[in-house]
Amino acid sequence: MSLRVEQSLSQLLHEAFVSLRTLGKRSVLALLGIVIGSSSVVALINIGHNAAVDAAMIFKDMGTDTLIAQFPAKRSGNLSMRAHLDLDAVRSAVPGIAHIGALSLFSGPIVFHGRTANANLVGTTPAIHEAMRLVLREGRFLSPFDANETYAVIGDQVAQVLGAPGDPLRLGDRVRIHDYLFLIVGILHNQPRAMLMPVQANESLFIPAEGMRRIYANPQIGNVIIRAAPGQDMERIARQTAVALQRQLTDHSVDITVPQQMIDGMTRQSRT
């Protein structure tokens, strides 16, 4: 009887020790899983925070003093947007606007010495130079006196594609678009990508807005870019600019993007 009791106690102790050792391993594994999982969550939170901060910095680089207007149709159907807006009237009506310009967008091939590059063909008003912070490497930008001329300012990337070793594209060269030859009067520096801008300058050829009919039968203003003077209330300028533009439109409304609002939203998101 005493032998059975001893064996039974011995077995119980052995089983208890084995169970404890097994559970101990499981506990260690569970703790390791919790640590790894927590580290992953912290890493994801940090990645999300850093991404939001980086995105906000990109928008800040574009300029918090810049507004972008677009013109959605008020009702469904093929409603053409106007090819001209009185931007001087808008600037006069809204105190604090430093520069305001319009963009008419198209795309197509540009040919130079037998080489072809696909590019954005951008009909512009002269003030777009300052409104978009375009920096020239050579030459000049378009002026009000160029309205009826076949002059163009070319983006850095397009100029590089059209050029070749020993035969770069230079000021005074002519590029062909359809049946027209455009004289290059300006070459842009390589421009940083502007996240909210409707067109990337590096990939574009800028021509006078009045000349867009040479390459496109029905040009339309796609966007208006507004740059404010320093120290302005951007939300006020956005509201007043929308009202001033809307006076000139019947079939289209005015939507204005305020980069500072997007930056503030990203900053709040990065703190959560």
From TrEMBL:
PANTHER family: ABC TRANSPORTER PERMEASE YTRF (PTHR30572:SF4), MEMBRANE COMPONENT OF TRANSPORTER-RELATED (PTHR30572). The chain crosses the membrane at residues 28-48. Pfam families: MacB_PCD. Keywords: Membrane, Transmembrane, Transmembrane helix. It comes from the Bacteria. The keyword Acetylation does not apply. GO terms for molecular function: transmembrane transporter activity. GO terms for cellular component: plasma membrane. InterPro entries: MacB_PCD (IPR025857), Macrolide_Exporter_MacB (IPR050250). It comes from Pseudomonas poae. Residues 27-240 form the MacB-like periplasmic core domain. This is ABC transporter permease. The keyword tRNA processing does not apply.
